[in-house]
Amino acid sequence: MDTDERGELSFPERAGGEGPGQRMGERGREGGRKKRPERAEGGGSREGMKRRVFSLAWPAILNNLFQTAAVTADIIMVGTLGRAAVAGVTLGGQLLFIVMTVFMAITSGTIALVARFTGSGDTENKDRAVAQSLMLTLLISVPLFLVGVLRPGILVGVYGAEGQMTVLGEEYVRIVFAGAPMFAIISVAASSFIASGNTRLPMVVNGITNLVNIIGNYVLIFGVLGFPALGVRGAALGTLISILVGAAIYLALMVRKNREVRLRVGYFSPDAEMMVRIFRVGAPAGGEQLAIQVAFLVYMTIVVHFGDTAVAAHSIGMRVQSLSFMPGLGFATAATALTGQYLGKRDPAMAEESGWFSLEMALVVMSTLAALLFVFARPLAEVFIRDEGVVALAVVFIRILALGEPAIAIHFTLSGALRGAGDTRYPLYASTIGLYGVRIPIAVVVGTMTPLGIYGVWLAMITEYYARSAVILLRFRSGKWKEIRV
After folding, report:
1. Conformation bin of residue 225: beta by default, left when phi > 0, alpha when psi is -120 to 50
2. What is the pLDDT of residue 76?
């Protein structure tokens, strides 16, 4: 496998391989982790593998950094409106993540199939998978659009929050959910390009859309250039405009010839077999994200119990932590693409090596960032808000979160490798065990029944990170994911 000048993957053809989707041979059942030769199976050196991992990871890291920068800028600008505004946008933003969760039931299957078809050189089925995935996500987006726009109170009401933060949360949701169909297009397109080995294009598109988001928010929140000052509604409108721009760019790219991902009109007729394959692989990932988001809702109701100061501090801490997530998400993206493509080429040993290399690099970078977060917690918190009560709580939360960074690196990266292999069930198991067996019970008991209060709620989160990472690590080490059929 070679990496071209754009960071995209290309594979030399091999003769006599098995057909795509067949079980791996004895190489796939061997413990590829038992020894780490200087030159890995398949002709690639360790240094060469590092270069390939990094060539895929750095655009994904920047891509996620752009997204985080936009969300962070939102919170900083909204922070000037007061803690109720920060809390309201936080609640609305959490609901937007649920939309992403629903789409993951499709896009996780898209990633696994597109990566395998890319590795085997099956362009026809790759394009067919993209078209069918887009049809499914657009269909699912319709009820999300209707509920979010017409009855946002139903969604925001699940938190059990009261007062001004609820009113502002409903305003935010009503506007942002209008972009649900366009967000469906972005989700499928970005996943498909990444699975094809092109992580730079999603980085560029995301950079453009997030720049639009930041500028739009500034103009509409504060009322510059002759526009009225809309406050929280301005933040929502800025986000909606950026979603529309992103969808338009991806559609323009995918109708062009000679792209890794193409939309072909002939493939938009329903294909039951392809849809079933997408669902079979993607449903567990969607179930994982649904389980995560439901647990987050329950968890947030516990945080809300401590008032808007705690909610604002929680929001700030999560925004700061999201910056340290970037390497983990980037290396997870590399692991996803490489694992799926190597398995498509019937090279399970190199698929495993790519996962371990990605993890090693993620651990180094994220542990370094954790130390910086711990040391600079206060100045980071003060960037968002000047309310001393909120800042003091956020500093403690940021330092608690920093302790969980190694576990997050393991969970993100190896979960990405498993998803690339089509093994989407174990990330679901890990998340379910961690959230419902560890985080929520500890948060309830320690947070509400001991003097630790909100600090106990936050400590429960870190404990859960380590529990989840342990399940994923054991699964990846077993090597059983090499035999998954997609």
Report:
1. left
2. 78
Percent of the chain with pLDDT over 70: 88
Model pLDDT, residue 403: 92
**pLDDT tens sequence across 349-361:** 888 888 898 898 8
> DSSP character for 421?
T
Question: Residue 3: phi, psi to the nearest 5?
Answer: -115, 125
Q: How far apart are CA 370 and CA 385, in angstroms?
A: 22
Instruction: Give the C-alpha distances (Å, rounded to integers) separating 161 from 268, 306, 445, 467.
Output: 43, 11, 21, 29
Q: Which structure tokens are listed for 281? A: 């692989």
Q: Which two tokens stand for residue 17?
A: 């391989």
Contact in structure between 7 and 201 (CB atoms under 8 Å) = no
Q: How many residues does the chain have?
A: 486
pLDDT in tens, 198-237: 878 888 898 899 889 889 989 998 988 888 888 888 888 9
Whether 98 and 242 have beta carbons less than 8 Å apart is answered as no
Give the type of residue at 83: R
Q: What angle do CA 120, 126, 129 make, to 5 degrees?
A: 135
pLDDT for 8: 37
pLDDT confidence bin for 155, thresholds 50/70/90: confident
3-state secondary structure at position 154: helix
pTM tops 0.85, yes or no: no
Whole-angstrom distance, CA of residue 19 vs CA of residue 28: 15
For residue 6, pLDDT beyond 80:
no
Contacts of 462 (CB under 8 A, 6+ apart): 400, 401, 403, 404, 407
Cross-strand bridge partners of residue 44:
40
Residue 226: left if φ>0, alpha if ψ -120 to 50, beta else—which one? left
Q: Please list, in sequence order, all residues whose beta carbon lies within 8 angstroms of the beta carbon of residue 268, skipping any fewer than 6 positions away.
A: 131, 134, 135
The pair of structure tokens assigned to 485 is 């059929």
Number of other CB atoms surrounding residue 379 within 10 Å: 10
Closest CA to 265 of 128, 139, 142: 128
CA-based nearest residue to 250, from 235, 260, 240: 260
Determine the Cα–Cα distance for residues 296 and 445; give it in Å rounded to an integer. 17
CB 79 within 8 A of CB 453: no
Find the Cα–Cα–Cα–Cα dihedral 122, 27, 108, 247, rounded to 10°: -50
Between the CA of residue 418 and those of 22, 215, 406, 427, what are the distances in Å?
17, 37, 18, 8
What DSSP state is assigned to residue 113?
A: H
